[in-house]
Write a structure and sequence with these properties.
Layout lengths: L5 E5 L2 H4 L12 E2 L2 E2 H4 L2 H6 L1 H17 L4 H13 L3 E5 L5 H5 L4 E3 L2 E8 L5 E3 L18 E5 L9 H10 L2 E5 L11 H7 L3 E6 L11 E4 L2 H12 L6
Parallel strand pairs: 1-4, 1-9, 4-5, 9-10, 10-11
Antiparallel strand pairs: 2-3, 6-7, 6-8
Bound molecules: 2'-O-acetyl adenosine-5-diphosphoribose.
């Protein structure tokens, strides 16, 4: 039997039970800031200190968080499926990797990376950026968080498109389905013949496109689903 190829799209909801706040908790505001102010190139140009402080605070919060049962279940699934599993995450935290996942694409970038606007190099970055530290490669003080802002193109779109169109099963976990292109992957997977499953605390904005929707916390739903897909696997 040919192994099943699976794409799992994750969003902020998978990290919620690790204590990382989701985006749309509070009426379009992120930690009291307008999205436009902290998540667009224009916002950064207008007030770089505010934006750096915002991401520095989020980087620190993520450092305090630990992976939960949903992240761990996806590690077990990767152990079973190997290259037939791809996790596509919209999250900028590193909880999938800290749980042990290896096949992860960060389509919206990573908090733990800094990108030099002068030389273009990217660096692993654990510390703050608000003090405008020099780029380790070129020495210029032009580092920004390596996260994708509104108006910018998400990363690795071709690789993701290939995986989504080739998969047999597309599963979305903990995402509101309000940001494209990620919100459109369910329709792409379905039109390519995949079965589709949504696991979310509540129905999302794109629930109607899924073959099946299960509602509840990811730390319960994801281990249950993994156990069902690969019986006997301890998730
Ligand atoms: P959202 O905050 O929009 O949605 C989180 C979803 O997770 C909601 O549908 C919640 O109901 C659900 N949720 C909350 N707690 C959960 C739990 N314990 N278990 C399961 N589900 C839970 O976050 P995203 O959909 O990830 O983009 O947001 C997508 C993108 O919008 C982000 O990557 C970010 C943001 O703007 C950029 O920064 C470019």
């Amino acid at each position: 039997m040919r192994p099943v190829r699976v794409v799992v799209l994750t969003g902020a909801g998978i990290s919620a039970e690790s204590g990382v706040r989701t985006f749309r908790d509070s009426g379009g505001l992120w930690e009291g800031h307008d999205v436009e102010a902290v998540a667009t190139p224009e916002g950064f140009a207008r007030d770089p200190e505010l934006v750096q402080r915002f991401y520095d605070a989020r980087r620190r919060a993520v450092a305090q968080a630990t992976p939960n049962a949903a992240h761990r279940a996806l590690v077990h699934l990767e152990e079973a499926l190997g290259e037939d599993l791809l996790v596509v995450t919209q999250n900028v935290d590193d909880l999938h990797e800290r749980a042990g996942s290896r096949r992860v694409v960060h389509m919206h970038g990573e908090l733990l990376r800094a990108w030099c606007q002068e030389c273009g190099r990217r660096h692993r970055w654990d510390g703050d950026l608000v003090d405008v530290p020099p780029c380790p490669a070129c020495g210029e003080r032009a580092l920004r968080p390596d996260v994708v802002w509104f108006g910018e193109v998400p990363y690795e779109l071709e690789r993701i498109d290939r995986a989504v169109t080739a998969c047999d099963l597309f599963v979305s976990v903990g995402t509101s389905g309000s940001v494209y292109p990620a919100a459109g992957y369910v329709a792409l997977a379905a039109s390519s013949g995949a079965r589709t499953l949504e696991l979310n605390l509540e129905p999302s904005e794109v629930s109607r496109f899924f073959d099946e929707v299960r509602t509840g916390p990811a730390a319960q739903l994801v281990p249950q689903w993994v156990e069902q897909l690969v019986p006997g696997l301890r998730a």
